[in-house]
């Protein structure tokens, strides 16, 4: 309990500082710019893991590899299942995808032949670093210190060792930010929110011949029906106004408030991982 309180107090301080930072908007735009480029290169993979329960599995998989002398699939499953946020089938599916795509490799454990050991490959490690750095560049804006938070192979193990304290203490953004589940419980949820945020911060493009529904579905690599369902749920919760005829959306204050809270915590989680003990 003492450790849980310590983690919460540290996260809450980071969150409050981010929420009050006048450069938060600029930091979000920087992250949006970088993750959009990263997403384009690996859209199939990111579309799959940018759903809350799968992102948890990916995070635990990387963390277990860096903090354990021998990381096994059974350890990942045990760690994920105790939170009650993901099923055993989802865990197995994601680990299979990571193996087939060359992000992890497997071999039988020498210590226990009943267990399957895994290793994060160079591709898997580089993907982790690239994803984290779409946020660390934004954190440089928040702190005013250029490249002070950059992640590399030299410090990624230290990062995940510290970051793992968050989920081990039972803290997840989906439980901290009301209404965030409407988006991050869906494929490409993080990217959908970023696109809606960008729409709310830019004037309508009169020369654009396609509606927001078509544009966002393409940029987030999800079907129009998938995205339409998200829009309908968001409208029911007074977060957007959605015109099914034109496919356009109007971003409402409730969405903006939720999103700034979400990103303030999103950055705080990464900041926590970057802190030394």
List keywords for this structure.
277 residues; mainly alpha; two-stranded antiparallel ribbon; two-stranded antiparallel sheet; 14 helices; 65% helix
Task: Please give a structural write-up.
Helix content is 65%, strand content 6%. The chain has 14 helices and four strands. Strands 1-2 form a two-stranded antiparallel ribbon. Strands 3-4 form a two-stranded antiparallel sheet. The longest helix is centred in the middle third of the chain and has 22 residues, at 122-143.
Structural topology:
Layout: H1 2-20, H2 24-41, H3 43-49, H4 52-67, H5 73-81, H6 88-100, E1 104-108, E2 116-120, H7 122-143, H8 156-168, H9 173-176, H10 181-184, H11 189-200, H12 212-219, H13 224-236, E3 240-243, E4 248-251, H14 253-274
Antiparallel strand pairs: 1-2, 3-4
Helix pairs in contact: 1-14, 2-3, 2-7, 2-11, 4-5, 4-6, 4-8, 5-6, 8-14, 11-12, 12-13
What's the total count of β strands?
A: 4
Q: Into which percent range does the helicity of residues fall?
A: 55-70%
Specify the biggest β-sheet: 2 strands, antiparallel
Q: What share of residues are in beta strands?
A: 5-15%
How would you write the strand order of the largest sheet?
1-2
Return the average pLDDT rounded to an integer. Answer: 91
* Coarse shape: globular
State the distance separating the first and last CA atoms: 18 Å
Structural class: mainly alpha
């Amino acid at each position: 309990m003492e450790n849980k309180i310590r983690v919460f107090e540290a996260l809450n301080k980071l969150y409050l500082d981010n929420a009050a930072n006048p450069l938060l908007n600029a930091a979000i735009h920087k992250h949006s710019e970088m993750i959009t480029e990263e997403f384009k290169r690996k859209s199939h993979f990111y579309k799959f893991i940018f759903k809350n329960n799968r992102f948890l599995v990916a995070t635990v998989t990387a963390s277990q590899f860096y903090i354990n002398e021998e990381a096994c699939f059974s350890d990942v499953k045990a760690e994920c299942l105790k939170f009650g946020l993901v099923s055993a089938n989802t865990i197995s599916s994601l680990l299979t995808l990571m193996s087939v795509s060359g992000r992890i490799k497997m071999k039988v454990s020498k210590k226990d032949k009943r267990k399957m050991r895994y290793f994060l490959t160079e591709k898997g490690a580089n993907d982790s670093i690239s994803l984290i750095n779409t946020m660390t560049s934004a954190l440089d804006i928040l702190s005013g210190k250029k490249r002070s938070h950059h992640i590399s192979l030299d410090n990624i193990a230290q990062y995940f060792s510290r970051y793992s304290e968050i989920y081990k203490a039972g803290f997840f953004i989906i439980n901290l930010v009301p209404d965030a589940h409407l988006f991050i419980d869906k494929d490409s949820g993080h990217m959908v929110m970023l696109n809606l945020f960008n729409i709310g911060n830019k004037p309508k493009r009169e020369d654009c011949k396609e509606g927001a529904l078509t544009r966002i579905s393409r940029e987030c690599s999800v079907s129009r029906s998938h995205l339409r369902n998200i829009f309908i749920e968001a409208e029911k919760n007074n977060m957007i106004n959605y015109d099914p005829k034109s496919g356009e959306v109007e971003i409402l204050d409730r969405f903006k408030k939720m999103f700034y809270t979400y990103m303030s915590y999103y950055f705080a989680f990464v900041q926590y991982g970057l802190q030394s003990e």
